Amino acid sequence: MSSRKVALRLLLSIAIAAGLVWWLLAQGFDVIPSVRAIDGVLAWWAVPAYGLLFSAFHVLRAWRWRYLIDPFAEVRTGTMMSAAFAGFLAIQMMPLRTGELARPWLIDRHAGISKSAMLGTVAIERVVDGLVVSLGLTAALFAVPADAGPHVWGLRVVPLAVFAFALALLVAFHRRPEPVGRLVRGSVGLFSPRLAGFVSGALDRFHVGLACLPHPRSFWAFNAFSAAYWGLNALALWVLARGCGLDLSAAGSVAVVGCLAVGILLPAGPGYFGNFQLSVLVALGLYLDVRAEPEAVAVFVFALYVLQTGLTILFGAGAFLVLWRTPAVRAEERDGAQAMK
């Protein structure tokens, strides 16, 4: 990607973040609460408790990737975990989610598995994650009245429908790549023949990455780890909310996690700034009277953002240091690693 395109993406992402923050400030939301407010609201035990739970689910998030990689080749645990942690940092910090390409690139460089294959595993990961959080979000939102907010029915139905369709498309493309590929290329070609040519080549390479789907043991182990990861995520958020004095229910914690996961999939600024705060507030507003306790809500959102971002940076920076000291795979080793198990 050229430096000009990178600069344009960065400027666009910063503009999105600035617009969202301006809107939040206009609504009276304290994006960065004062030290006095933080000291008065946040319990001393909440930060270490959340930090431990976050570290646990961050490790689970990285470890589960092994079950999608295993069908391709043996990868050292240290290399796999380092690439995952570094990739998570890149996803969060690079504009408009371009960091999704980091993990495939790092695994290709340090383990010799093709980027196309790894992009397929990332797509499966995104779809499974989307289904898990959408199912949780749908179930949680049936615990609140449909008229609790203007977004209730949309959040109940739309994310689940989108990710269910994405899963069906992935499975169909894996089983019948030629007709599904023709359909996708034909649909894109209606708008841009040039883009259709690019999509055609990308689909051919992407199909390689779906090779882990015929391995039921690996795929279902990945699903189990995904459910555990998201459950731990919701538990950590519930603990932090309690530490800020918010009486958030278990269903509310699941809904906040779901809204946040969906919200940060949209185009966002570096660090998800803006999208993150707005997504959490939308969900909190369905379960709490956020205007009745604005200080506690502001501190909670701020602490959640700072802790998640800070710990992601710590894990990712350590991983980048490990990978920087790890030599890249040589051409002859790369050829051996490309062979399927």
Describe the structure.
With 341 residues, the protein is mostly helical. It has one domain (3-337). It has helices at residues 3-26, 35-41, 46-63, 66-69, 77-93, 102-111, 115-141, 152-175, 177-189, 193-209, 216-243, 250-263, 275-287, 294-324, 331-337. Helix 3 (46-63) runs antiparallel to helix 11. The longest helix is centred in the C-terminal third of the chain and has 31 residues, at 294-324. The chain is globular and about 55 Å long. It starts with a helix and ends with a helix. The model has no long low-confidence stretch (mean pLDDT 83).
Please outline what is shown here.
With 341 residues, the protein is mainly alpha-helical.
Which helices and strands, and how do they pair?
Layout: H1 3-26, H2 35-41, H3 46-63, H4 66-69, H5 77-93, H6 102-111, H7 115-141, H8 152-175, H9 177-189, H10 193-209, H11 216-243, H12 250-263, H13 275-287, H14 294-324, H15 331-337
Helix pairs in contact: 3-5, 3-11, 3-14, 5-6, 5-14, 6-7, 7-8, 7-10, 7-11, 7-12, 8-9, 9-10, 11-12, 12-13, 13-14
Keywords for this entry:
single chain; 341 residues; mainly alpha
Please indicate the percent range of residues in DSSP E strands (runs of 2 or more): under 5%
Rg from Cα: 21 Å
Distance between the termini: 32 Å
Q: Give the CA-based shape.
A: globular
Number of domains: 1
What string, H for helix and E for strand, traces the elements in order?
Answer: HHHHHHHHHHHHHHH
Which structural class do the helices and strands define? mainly alpha
Round the mean pLDDT to the nearest integer and report it. 83
- The unreliable regions are none
Question: Number of DSSP strands?
Answer: 0
Helix content: over 70%
What kind of sheet is the major sheet?
Answer: none
How many separate helices? 15
